[in-house]
């Protein structure tokens, strides 16, 4: 029982540490330090951190700190969306709405927006309201 508590505590601590690094990436991004954001997010994204994967997707979609590459953006957004991150689901929906790196498809976009909105992600609900 004690070993299980220690293991759970260690898992939680590592999760918090990972989130702290992802937050550092967001702070760098918000300051316009896109290379710094990339440096924080890349190793975490490679290890499966959804927030960092979404962050990398944003860098590639916008060409911030990296060459603009919609295929890379979609690949990173898809990894994060597959883990249920609503922000990434919204980003994929937006890509389908605009045709950025994927074939433009309003129906698929709506499906992604609905997934994000179902989790309470307000920007997704707002765009759904505008689309109706």
From TrEMBL:
One Pfam family recorded for the sequence: Sel1
Gene3D superfamilies: Tetratricopeptide repeat domain
Signal peptide: 1-22
Coiled coil: none
Organism domain of life: Bacteria
Keywords annotated in UniProt: Signal
PANTHER family referenced in this protein's UniProt entry, alphabetically: ERAD-ASSOCIATED E3 UBIQUITIN-PROTEIN LIGASE COMPONENT HRD3, SEL-1-LIKE PROTEIN
Protein name as annotated: Tetratricopeptide repeat protein
């Amino acid at each position: 029982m004690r070993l299980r508590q220690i293991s759970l505590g260690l898992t939680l601590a590592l999760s918090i540490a990972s989130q702290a690094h992802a937050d550092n990436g967001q702070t760098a991004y918000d300051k316009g330090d896109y290379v710094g954001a990339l440096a924080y997010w890349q190793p975490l994204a490679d290890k499966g951190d959804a927030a960092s994967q979404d962050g990398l997707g944003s860098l590639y979609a916008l060409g911030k700190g990296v060459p603009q590459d919609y295929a890379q953006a979609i690949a990173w957004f898809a990894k994060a969306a597959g883990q249920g991150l609503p922000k990434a689901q919204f980003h994929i929906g937006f890509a389908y709405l605009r045709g950025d790196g994927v074939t433009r498809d309003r129906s698929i976009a709506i499906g992604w927006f609905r997934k994000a909105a179902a989790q309470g992600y307000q920007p997704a609900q707002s765009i759904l309201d505008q689309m109706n």
